[in-house]
Amino acid sequence: MKKSLFLIIVTIPILFFYQNCAEVPLQKDLPGEEPYYGKGQGEICLSGPYANYTVDSFYVVNLNIGFKEDKLVLDSDADGLSDGDESALGFDPLKRRSSGGILDSLCSSLTGTNSCEVIRPGGCTETPNRLGLTDCDYRSLNLHSLYSHPQQGLDSDKDGIPDLVEILRGTNPNIRDETDDTDRDQILNSNEILRGTNPIYSDRNASVLTRVLASISKTSSTSCAGGEVWKINIDQIPFVRIPEFVDTTDSSNPVGALSLSHAKNENVILIYLKLRPQVGQSGNPMILFKGLKINADIPEFVLDVNQFVKAGEVEP
Ligand SMILES: [Ca+2]
Ligand SMILES: [Ca+2]
Ligand SMILES: [Ca+2]
Ligand SMILES: [Ca+2]
Fold first, then answer.
1. How far from the centroid of its chain's Cα atoms is residue 28's Cα?
2. Which of 26, 89, 160, 173 has its CA 20 to 30 A from that of 225?
């Protein structure tokens, strides 16, 4: 299949899906309810295997929040389909791969149905990577043949936005679209994902209360042997009240993989760093992440950033 045709086939259903999300109001829209926000900060020391590296891109994403136009929606199982849409479309809102071994949002966007078997690539084995995608997921998007990496399904198109987040947020994991403005609201896709706004729907009139306010900056420190120190500030991240979710695939995931299971009202926050070699240094870019599980009722949390996990490497 020609690449352009493939992109159209992939993109249009994703847009279609997001036009049809069931609407769940933000907590602030509920009478008498206060919004739920988290905040935290910490420093990461790039020492040891990361000593010759610097930060290339940074995202903080609440994986249990999706979008319906300028409203936030609940996504209890972090598969990119809201709980309401899952029920309406015949998926299981508490199972990420309801049928056929493909992530529910991918199945919905690629087929328009919940019959996922028809797009399951031949030979895929549902082998998971550390960021929550399987070979069946990324092969259904043909990412494995479009791009070659030491570890597949992390940031296939090398635009700094992880495949998982691109699938959940509706940008294209096939092409470098981080500096595109897909919804023409004058905010670039990469900024929309960092701000927690919707990159494929012009929601610049949405309340600032729906936004993520997070930043990372290089700082000076004498306590980091041979490496750079980066300070992460999360000043505001919205939370939603959701049911408990038990991901039955946790036990088969690689050691250290992102776990998406959570207790009632816990939200899973992904902090994602892509590192690149410093100028004059060689090596592949590395993907680091930390998965935080924060209760929406306890909005302030400690950000222990020195326990990042390496998801893998991608080609420069
Ligand atoms: Ca879901
Ligand atoms: Ca599901
Ligand atoms: Ca990407
Ligand atoms: Ca935009």
1. 24
2. 160
Q: Which ligand is nearest to the CA of 156?
A: 3
The H-assigned helical ranges of the chain are 3-19, 83-89, 104-111, 135-140, 143-146, 163-169, 189-195
Q: With 50 as the cut, is the pLDDT of residue 38 above it?
A: yes
Q: How far apart are CA 82 and CA 88, in angstroms?
A: 10
Ligand lying nearest the CA atom of residue 272? 3
Tell me the pLDDT tens digit for each residue of 150-201.
999 999 999 999 999 999 999 999 999 999 999 898 889 999 999 998 999 8
Q: Which residues pair with 60 in a beta bridge?
A: 271
C-beta atoms surrounding 151 within 10 Å: 17
* Phi, psi dihedrals of residue 59, rounded to the nearest 5°: -140, 145
Compute, in angstroms, the gap from residue 153 CA to the centroid of ligand 3. Answer: 9
User: Of the ligands numbered here, which is closest to the C-alpha atom of 190?
Assistant: 4
Surrounding ion ligand 1 within 5 Å at CB are: 75, 77, 79, 81
Calculate what percentage of the chain has a pLDDT beyond 90: 66
> Domains of the chain: which residue ranges?
3-25+36-313
Closest to 198 (Cα-Cα) out of 10, 21, 2: 21
pLDDT in tens, 74-115: 999 999 999 999 999 999 999 999 998 999 999 999 999 999
DSSP 307: G
The pTM of this model reads 0.87
Pairing of strands 65-68, 37-45: unpaired
Report yes or no: 147 and 303 within 8 Å, Cβ to Cβ: no
147 CA → ligand 1 middle, Å: 27
CA 246/CA 297 separation, integer angstroms: 20
Helix (H) or strand (E) holding 217: strand 213-219
Question: Rounded to whole angstroms, how far apart are CA atoms 205 and 186?
Answer: 12
Question: Which residues, 6 or more positions from 145, have their beta carbon under 8 angstroms from its beta carbon?
Answer: none
